[in-house]
Amino acid sequence: MQVKSRHHLRADEIDDLEADIEAKTGVALNGDAYEMVELADAPFDVVLVDGEPDVVQFDAEAFLTVQGANRHEPTTGVVTVDAGAISFVSDGADVMRPGIVEADPDVAAGDLVTIAEETHGKVLAIGRALVDGPEMTGDSGKVVESIHHVGDDLFEFTV
């Protein structure tokens, strides 16, 4: 990925970003330095928090990266999958109902969510909910579209 530009965020941009991330994930980011990295050849930009790629922006919608979610442990917007779904989700597959053991009931269709595995709570992917949280468990159907996962270009991103 080619870096188009880099700049530090202003105090008001940092306040907005921190409030947005906390509202979506329950994570209170408290970094000393926030740097926007705009990429020329990717559909997202990255925000470095104290030098770490903790936040991604998809069309100006900020959310934690997989690394950021594992560093800061979100408490809301989490969809938990069973051991049988781990390899599929880690490879970028969309999440199907039979693999879900729990979903935050406050998730609404269209929300970005973190997808974690049930045994250790490690985040495997970030996705967009296709249905509301209470409708995620069941026998069949796709319920979360994967947009960022372990091992993809964003996960491998370094500055």
What attributes does this structure have?
six-stranded mixed beta sheet, single chain, 2 domains, 159 residues, alpha+beta, 17% helix, Archaeosine Trna-guanine Transglycosylase, Chain: A, domain 4, Nuclear Transport Factor 2, Chain: A, five-stranded antiparallel beta sheet
Set out the fold topology:
Blueprint: E1 3-8, H1 11-25, E2 34-39, E3 45-49, E4 52-58, E5 61-64, H2 66-72, E6 78-81, H3 86-90, E7 95-96, E8 100-103, E9 112-117, E10 123-129, E11 142-149
Parallel strand pairs: 6-9
Antiparallel strand pairs: 1-2, 2-3, 3-4, 4-5, 6-8, 7-11, 9-10, 10-11
Could you describe the 3D structure shown?
By secondary structure, the chain is an alpha+beta fold. The chain folds into two domains: 3-71, Nuclear Transport Factor 2, Chain: A (Roll), CATH 3.10.450.120; 73-149, Archaeosine Trna-guanine Transglycosylase, Chain: A, domain 4. The protein contains three helices and eleven strands, in the order E-H-E-E-E-E-H-E-H-E-E-E-E-E. The strands form two sheets. It has a six-stranded mixed beta sheet with strand order 7-11-10-9-6-8. Strands 1-2-3-4-5 form a five-stranded antiparallel beta sheet. Strand 9 and strand 10 (123-129) form a beta hairpin. The chain is globular and about 45 Å long. It starts with a strand and ends in a 10-residue tail after the last strand. The mean pLDDT is 95.
